[in-house]
Amino acid sequence: MTSSAKAENALELRDLSVAYRVAGRNRAVLRNLSLNIRQGEAYGLVGESGCGKSTVALTVVRYLPRNGSISGGVISLDGQDVMKLDAEALRRARAESVSMVYQDPGKALNPSIRIGRQLTEIFELGGITGQAATDRAIAMLNRVRISDPPSVMQRYPHQLSGGMQQRVAIAMALANDPSMLILDEPTTGLDATVEAEVLDLIAQLRQELSASILFISHNLAVVSNMCDRVGVLYAGMLVEEGPTEVVFNDPRHPYTVALLRCLPRGGQRKDQGRLDTIPGFLPGIGADIKGCAFADRCALADDRCRTELPPLYDLSDERGKRLSRCFHHDKAQALPRATPSDVATAPKPATAPVLRVAGLNKTYASHGHPLRAVKDVSLDLRPGETLGLVGESGSGKTTFARLLLGLVPPDDGGTIELEGKALAPKLENRGDDQVKAMQIVFQNPDSALNRSHSIRHILGRALKRLAGLSGKAQEARLDDLVRSVRLTDRHLAVKPRQLSGGLKQRVAIARAFAGDPRIVVCDEPTSALDVSVQAAILNLLADLQSKEDVSYIFISHDLGVVRYLSDKIAVLYLGRIMEIGPSEEVFSGPHHPYTEALLSAVPKLDQTETARIRLDGEIPSATNPPPGCVFNTRCPRKIGPICEQQEPPLAEAQPGHSIRCHIPYPELARLQKAAVTEPA
Amino acid sequence: MSAVPTTSPPQDDTRRRSPLAEVLFSLLRSRTFLVGLFIVLFWVACALFGEHFAPYDPLADDIINALAPPSAEHWFGTDQIGRDVFSRVIVGSRDILTVAPLATLLATVAGTALGLLTGYFRGIVDDVVSRILEAFMAIPVVIVALLAIVALGTSKATVIVVIGLSFAPIIARTVRSAVLAERELDYVAAAQLRHESALHTMFVEILPNVIPPILVETTVRLGYAIFAVATLSFMGFGIQPPSPDWGLSISSNYGMIGGGFWWTVLFDALAIASLVIGVNLVADGVHGALND
């Protein structure tokens, strides 16, 4: 760069408008967006999907898709007007001063080129070649805390775990010491433990580097931990901006208020109240917006909001500069709830378990080696109860669910009993009644709903097969079913692709409930959804449960969500139950060191971070589990050789609460209490 | 709560075109497809109504005018017994345009069924059936045709069966790979969790989702089928005299090229080429529209 003196702002967007041309019409995606990122600052951009967050990132480097165009405004990077750069200067700016890290590191790295070559390539662009480039690449990998860089450089991307891949992607982004780093959902596809590591890394790098950061995420907690300032984007407009802590603790726009309320926080549980939701939908791209874009979904909106665009009110105070685009910013927090909080819960009578699993195993063959995906799992589940299954990916959660459903046959020896009757291992051999009693809501509704069939066909077929209904009776039940998941008749005629993600998931839930099931397995049912939609789906599941007395097996990597819905938690690691017990006890502790680490990894919105426990290394291969306690290779509380030699039993620590650890329960209690009080 | 409904109609969505309409829309904007369609429709029109606008009876001989070069009277000249080549080329599209599509249809139906079966059941069914299909694919069509004609005698039906069955394994392979991918999707597990029969899952759940690749493969195969019919006719195993079929005409006239009577062969050859190109352009267009 020619200018030696740095501009005050690393990035400045002024009145930026971007439109995508779809079906012959230009549709506005960003509307007069203005924001500044100061040198060395980390700026978070949050909002639901479809708000234009990623478009901002692409626009900064003028990298819009072919149908996108910048219809107005100024982008200046380090004082340089990006719009005025010619092709060569733009290429240089992209190579030297701005770097991006995308959501899926697997797609950002070239699968057929070794890591080393991909890294040195970047240095070669800058004129550094040969051994010098290799040395720089090694230094870069060291910087992102990858141990043994020379061996990593010899590997191909698929030989690295997701967290390692993302570190490599970050190393590549930092290679040219950029002044601006754009992170677009950098941890979204990663496990909580890995996410925590990557976020720690980014936080550490911030102190070493001078780069300013634009951090795009839908996860408010991540942004609150990572960023100095935050901007809330809605329908391509900035609706609120200010210091992160102030915005999240004292929001002044109803949209921010509503977003924050959708999250299950502070250990909220289904029997304490329903989550709030945001009614309606984000305006479609290019929608003609008169007045406030959020007015249609806002309970505070009045006639003025619907006709006149609110200006960005300057609400700066001693806590910093902040803006809110709301006429009613002073009473934003008084936004009435969209969903009443109150729930009627009757205490459940203790009844016989509806499901009883004993000694369940599943072994796959992997290149001639046995892979124990599920090992010796025993548990039971009462009617109306939710069992939360947590653990990193690869811990056997989904395999366990598939064993229960009979989609995958378990190894010989284990038993699954449904209402006292043993279930055949294979689905084909189970009775129709047994099959309809256990259903599933899959993670991805696009895959779970047949895209060739109408919603009416999908639900009608489920009613015919699972409830044995046809003709008039089916019609009547279909109406009830549709209403119970809060869909309407209008949704019946359409195909899945015409519905939004949340509506599709409602259809999937309706299908699972068609035959009055006793148990519904929910496999990450909200992980593909925005928080506002997630809240509505969680409420729906909780309502259906209290009405139908159905039991859930709820799989999720989001511990806040699991805690909200679960009565009981089982923590899985390498196919083994490490801890099982009542939800509150598992969460509040004392708990298994693995549970402790999982909980500590979750980014928290209220920044009440206590002890930080980070797991080193990766989850070991299930074909070759460590001897002794399988967790010993990563355990921060390992006590000695016994951990490596002898597998601890799943011992009952409290009535109903069992932990698989050599450390005695009182000792765990003492250790973990100490960790909370003494600052790390 | 009552003030704001939790679900509002899928706004915007209702205006979205259905998948079928979207495919048609992009087909109509594809120049490749339109040119191909024009050529194919031209020959289809010839096959249906050829005798009404052919200037002469394609079968009427006129020995005095035998082997006349192209002229104002006989645009494409006449053949060795004085039949008008132009009229024969126009009407000659009829047999090939009956036999080739029927053969392709047979191949598609048989191939789809086999592909669904092998892709859905996998395992031993897949291993056995796939090996048999591969063995079948290894035998040249001409040999199969020869054997079939010895066994069944020459007729259009024999040609349809021979080409249909030779092409079925190729379509089966395409369908199988599409089904293998489809079968991993959760809606198939959901069907199993309703205790649906295998037939229902294959034909009602999976089949509609693999139509696009089948459609593409079918149009591509149609091009090859036209070529195969012409080849078999040329070799005498296909369409039989006195049909003015192109392959057959070339076969009975190609000896004349040496004598300089090129027009007895050239126009039939061009007709075959144009039809194959037309079908392939359509196939390209369909492929593009379905993979956008």
Fourth-level CATH superfamily of the largest domain in chain B: MetI-like
Mean pLDDT of chain A comes to: 87
pLDDT < 50 runs, ≥5 residues of chain A = none
Gyration radius of chain A, rounded: 26 Å
Please give the structural blueprint:
The complex is a heterodimer of chains A (680) and B (292).
Chain A: E1 9-22, E2 25-38, E3 42-46, H1 53-60, E4 68-77, E5 80-81, H2 87-96, E6 98-101, H3 105-108, H4 115-125, H5 130-143, H6 149-153, H7 162-174, E7 180-184, H8 192-208, E8 212-216, H9 220-226, E9 229-234, E10 237-243, H10 244-249, H11 254-262, H12 303-307, E11 313-314, E12 323-324, E13 355-366, E14 369-381, E15 386-390, H13 397-405, E16 415-418, E17 421-422, H14 432-437, E18 438-441, H15 445-448, H16 455-467, H17 471-484, H18 501-513, E19 519-523, H19 531-548, E20 551-555, H20 559-565, E21 568-573, E22 576-582, H21 583-588, H22 593-601, H23 641-645, E23 650-654, E24 657-660, H24 665-677
Parallel strand pairs in A: 3-8, 3-9, 6-7, 7-8, 15-20, 15-21, 18-19, 19-20
Antiparallel strand pairs in A: 1-2, 1-4, 4-5, 9-10, 10-12, 11-12, 13-14, 13-16, 16-17, 21-22, 22-24, 23-24
Chain B: H1 19-28, H2 31-53, H3 85-91, H4 93-121, H5 123-138, H6 141-152, H7 156-183, H8 186-192, H9 198-206, H10 211-235, H11 246-253, H12 263-290
Helix pairs in contact in B: 1-12, 2-4, 2-12, 4-5, 4-7, 4-10, 5-7, 6-7, 7-10, 10-11, 10-12, 11-12
Describe this structure in words.
The complex is a heterodimer of chains A (680) and B (292). With 680 residues, chain A is an alpha/beta fold. Chain A contains 24 helices and 24 strands. The two termini of chain A are 42 Å apart. In chain A, 50% of the residues are buried. With 292 residues, chain B is mainly alpha-helical. Chain B has 2 domains: 23-92 and 244-292, no CATH class; 97-241, MetI-like (MetI-like fold), CATH 1.10.3720. Chain B contains 12 helices and no strands. Chain B has helices at 19-28, 31-53, 85-91, 93-121, 123-138, 141-152, 156-183, 186-192, 198-206, 211-235, 246-253, 263-290. In chain B, helix 4 (93-121) packs antiparallel against helix 5 and helix 10 (211-235) runs antiparallel to helix 12 (263-290). The longest helix of chain B is centred in the middle third of the chain and has 29 residues, at 93-121. The two termini of chain B are 42 Å apart. Classes of the chains: A alpha/beta (680), B mainly alpha (292). The interface between A and B is large, with 48 and 29 residues.
